[in-house]
UniProtKB/TrEMBL annotation:
<keyword id="KW-0472">Membrane</keyword>
<feature type="transmembrane region" description="Helical">
    <location>
        <begin position="149"/>
        <end position="169"/>
    </location>
</feature>
<feature type="transmembrane region" description="Helical">
    <location>
        <begin position="222"/>
        <end position="244"/>
    </location>
</feature>
<feature type="compositionally biased region" description="Low complexity">
    <location>
        <begin position="298"/>
        <end position="308"/>
    </location>
</feature>
<feature type="transmembrane region" description="Helical">
    <location>
        <begin position="62"/>
        <end position="84"/>
    </location>
</feature>
<feature type="transmembrane region" description="Helical">
    <location>
        <begin position="96"/>
        <end position="120"/>
    </location>
</feature>
<feature type="transmembrane region" description="Helical">
    <location>
        <begin position="250"/>
        <end position="272"/>
    </location>
</feature>
<keyword id="KW-0812">Transmembrane</keyword>
<feature type="transmembrane region" description="Helical">
    <location>
        <begin position="6"/>
        <end position="33"/>
    </location>
</feature>
<protein>
    <submittedName>
        <fullName>Uncharacterized protein</fullName>
    </submittedName>
</protein>
<keyword id="KW-1133">Transmembrane helix</keyword>
<feature type="transmembrane region" description="Helical">
    <location>
        <begin position="175"/>
        <end position="201"/>
    </location>
</feature>
<feature type="region of interest" description="Disordered">
    <location>
        <begin position="295"/>
        <end position="317"/>
    </location>
</feature>
Length: 317
């Protein structure tokens, strides 16, 4: 890869490293909670247990560190696997950079899986706890249409690589290998989601009130979204690497399936952005952000000793 691509990767590495460092800062953790709350349509209560902002910080940190590990692995492969960075006339193109970034996206998802499964529930104390009477499932957090889109995109990418292997011939195997690696990585990510998602949803976490239970659901949704989304980005680049292996040959069908995979991933990304409140509609129908007056009245009625955050006036906005 040339200097231009290395500079782009260096910028990405610095940004991820800074993000990982800032995730330790309480103000950044609160900002991340408030940003997520605005997207979902819920407020951050002033007396929300600080454990929730720490969970947010751990998720951000794990995602960034996982992405760094993925970039390192992707860069290693791009530098050693024949054809990864030399698709046309032995000259590096931007596709090599995207291939490395795809590894970073998968690494980010792996980081979120690890921190979500390793994060033990808080031990109980003498405070009153609330619990949900119904059993939740992955479908309560991730809309079924999103999983179907992910599956369809995966099938199209696998078909593309299969056609590349069948039609590309041995003369272009150096172009097909990166496609096989990326698609296999994405499929492994889908399998990891299917296994980890059930365990994440089944985790029991004691909460003091319904506000905390809503935010517990919100953090689960964020984790599941990240785990499902990351590997899909590798599908697109894997499929088009496969198409490169069929150029100047009978590869029209491979081009169609690769384009279908790209479209399906794009639709998935759009649907994800438009379904940020899916879990809220499923598990908390009718929930909404409290107004300033309602939040002030709630805080006034609560025991001041239970409000650990020093600036309650801003944290629920």
């Amino acid at each position: 890869m040339d200097v231009y691509l290395l500079v782009l990767l260096a910028i990405a590495v610095v940004g991820l490293a800074v993000t990982a460092g800032l995730s330790f800062v309480p103000a950044v953790q609160v900002w991340a909670l408030e940003r997520a709350g605005r997207r979902i349509g819920i407020g951050v209560p002033a007396d929300l247990d600080p454990a929730f902002r720490r969970r947010m910080g751990r998720r951000i940190r794990a995602s960034a560190l996982g992405a760094l590990a993925g970039l390192a692995l992707g860069l290693l492969l791009a530098s050693t696997v024949p054809g990864w960075g030399l698709p046309y006339s032995h000259r590096p193109i931007l596709l090599a950079y995207y291939g490395v970034i795809a590894f970073g996206a998968v690494g980010s998802a792996v980081g979120v899986i690890v921190v979500s499964l390793a994060s033990a529930p808080r031990p109980g104390d003498d405070a009153a706890r609330v619990a949900r009477l119904t059993v939740t499932s992955v479908g309560d957090y991730i809309a079924p249409i999103l999983r179907r889109l992910a599956l369809a995109a995966s099938v199209c990418a696998v078909v593309t690589v299969g056609l590349a292997i069948a039609l590309g011939g041995t003369s272009r195997v150096h172009l097909i290998v990166p496609g096989i690696v990326l698609v296999a990585l994405a499929i492994a990510g889908q399998i990891a989601f299917a296994v980890a998602a059930r365990r994440i949803v089944a985790q029991g976490r004691p909460t003091r009130d319904t506000d905390e239970m809503v935010w517990d659901d919100a953090l689960r949704w964020l984790a599941l979204r990240d785990i499902l989304s990351g590997p899909l980005q590798a599908l697109c680049f894997g499929a088009f690497y496969g198409v490169l292996g069929t150029l100047n040959g009978p590869g029209a069908l491979a081009l169609i399936t690769a384009f279908a995979s790209l479209v399906l991933v794009a639709v998935f990304n759009i649907a994800t952005r438009n379904n940020t409140d899916w879990f809220l509609l499923r598990l908390w129908p009718g929930a909404r952000r409290r107004t300033d007056d309602e939040e002030a009245a709630r805080l006034a009625a609560a025991d001041p000793a239970t409000a650990p955050w020093p600036d309650p006036s801003a944290s629920h906005r």
